[in-house]
Amino acid sequence: MAVTQDKSTKRTRKPEPAMGKDELLDAYSTMLLIRRFEEKAGQLYGMGLIAGFCHLYIGQEAVVVGMKHATSDGDEVITSYRDHGHMLACGMDPKGVMAELTGRSGGYSHGKGGSMHMFSREKNFFGGHGIVGAQVSLGTGLGFSNWYRGNDRVSLTYFGDGAANQGQVYESFNLANLMKLPVIFIIENNRYSMGTSVERATASRDLSLNGSPWGMASLSVDGMDVMAVKAAGEIAVAHCRAGHGPFLLEMKTYRYRGHSMSDPAKYRTREEVQRMRAEHDCLDAAKKMLEDQGVSEADLKKLDDDIKARVQEAADFAQTSPEPDEAEIWTDVLVEGV
Amino acid sequence: MATEILMPALSPTMTEGKLSKWLKKVGDDVKSGDVIAEIETDKATMEVEAVDEGKILSILVEEGTEGVPVNAVIATLGVEGETAKAAPAAAPKVEAPIAAPKAAAPAPAVKAEHHEIAEPSWGETKPTTVREALRAGMSLEMRADPDVFLMGEEVAQYQGAYKISQGMLDEFGPRRVIDTPITEHGFTGMAVGAAMNGLKPIVEFMTFNFAMQAIDQIINSAAKTLYMSGGQMGCPIVFRGPNGAASRVGAQHSQCFASWYAHCPGLKVVAPWSAADAKGLMRAAIRDPNPVIFLENEILYGQTFDCPVSDDFILPIGKAKIERVGSDVTIVAFSIMVDVALKAAEILAGQGISAEVINLRTIRPLDVATIVESVKKTNRVVSVEEGWPFAGIGSEICMTVTEHCFDWLDAPPVRVAGLDVPMPYAANLEKLALPQPNWVVDAVKKII
Ligand SMILES: Cc1ncc(C[n+]2csc(CCOP(=O)(O)OP(=O)(O)O)c2C)c(N)n1
Ligand SMILES: [Mg+2]
Predict the structure, then answer these.
(1) What is the pLDDT of residue B11?
(2) Of chain B residues 185-244, which have a CB less than 8 A from chain A?
(3) Contacts A193 to B, Cβ<8 Å
(4) Where are the domains of chain B?
(5) Reduced to 3 states, what is the DSSP secondary structure of residue B251?
């Protein structure tokens, strides 16, 4: 369990283990589902069944899963185009997500959105956005709606280290702090925006302090450790629900695959990727903790098999679900009949 | 059972690639995640990772083979002792993936017999991709003028998201080929400020969709300053990047901004089709003392055309080009839609209808003279664009013709445009959304 530092108060705290065995097993299985789902999506892309841009979440699973375990069902989630993991963590059906990737009628947007644009009102997942940084203001608006209604929900607003350079992020920080909106801003710092490393893109040396001019409370978190993520998430959620305004979490994480499917990968070494995979993998770490707590090899193997079967089922559905009806090209441009 | 390793699709526009290198040989063990080969796509050289585990039983496509179709079996993988299937004699033919983009085949170079209206001859030409032509246009101007520089996301170290600026960092150095953070509004404003002070920036937007983050600086700062300052202070700047639909990238990444920018006084708007258009107009745009919006097209980047090699070659902004001479109807198009118009003209020729095709090259200022002269001859006009119909470029062309040569028209002007909906992702729906040659043929037949 990593030590996290509370930047707002400069205290160092070492939280209690954030999850018991059953909860950790649950978190592990969601992370594994995301990993296997993404591997399958990569395969289907290679076969030409998924097209366009497709950004895989492999390596970053602990972030969304840890946050899911720190929040409750009514809380809103919004993110960028690297969104498959967020949807699965929100409890959206892998079949519907995969069918959207193949552009079929069984997909969450009936095939009209694609990998980058999926939504679920039922699960409070507000998308899937293709314009870098735009979702940060939208997520602030989700928080605003909670403030306006006076409920105790929080908006989880995810964005990348690259997106953290967009001006509207700081306009949103100001608004959220000014109005004390319940928004958790989560920077998924995977060290690169496409081929540009954080060091080459920002003069800020500590992204968790990017909200400090507005006095925003923040933490820098080991985003490869699902327990550390949950522990930090709980602090942020408590802060927001108590009406203290927004909270910034910088998740230090890593993506193993290319930015999208077409990525020449010349901006980092293979050794760097291998080292992160070998030494910091969120699944390996969780698995080891589970084994230490007496979960048997056989049980873990069975879990893996079950998840593989679920993912295969999603892949089959995504290939057999029919393409959308041609008439659908005209629907949902405007709300009709008003 | 041996597992087949298939040629993967590694980019949205890839239908085939070169298998440049094998990093494993027959008999090697591979684990999932191991790099097994290197493949050259239309955009980059990429590594192929193994998905399954096992031993390489056979390699079916030699390294160095070009044009290996996506989904062809390139090797087989199995467990110890298993035997490889006999290698097929040739790389197996497989069906194109369902997502195969339509523009995979290079456009035919425009046939010489159509060039009746001669442009000044620029001498020797050579087959050039639009990508190379854009790069050549920028590089020539940067060599000639130290005030010209290129700035944008991934333009330098990454060599350009679409490889337009490949090699330019090496030639011009990091002071003149500048990587920016993802901060369009900020770096666009910075470039406009630099232009007000006399520098000549070329701003690359990774795609024009992202220029919407910066459109305030383009319209309110770049386009209006000359006017507001009573002519004291202009803005010699080029905003360039891919515009319009690519392939299967969905609603937020597929739209044509021609009519957005063309609406605004104080801007020039250029939309090249061929490699010659790209090179000649790029040079003119950089030399122009005004802000120029330079709308490229991702699908055209890899297409090859004959392009003048002369270092003096330049094209004027504001002049259209007649790509094909005809007498029965005028088809006006720009960018990739010129291709669609030419294909339609070919089909129409087979049916005894002679179509004249105008490649606008510049949208603002519009070459009214060339359009009007053509319509006075053919008495009919059809406009073609991939953007939305409402208040589109087609509306402007139809109105221009109505104003200038109403009495010559034998039929109402007709416009062909993309469907009036955000771009859907699904393969079948996307195909329905963009103008096809038969849409143009049908439009012509409605008025003939
Ligand atoms: C406004 C805008 N500019 C550029 C792009 C192209 N683009 C897509 S993703 C990306 C990199 C974003 O990096 P980061 O925010 O770190 O997120 P990550 O991809 O690492 O998850 C870029 C430049 C875009 N989609 N939107
Ligand atoms: Mg990143």
Answers:
(1) 77
(2) 185-186, 209-210, 212-213
(3) 181-182
(4) 3-99, 125-308, 318-447
(5) helix
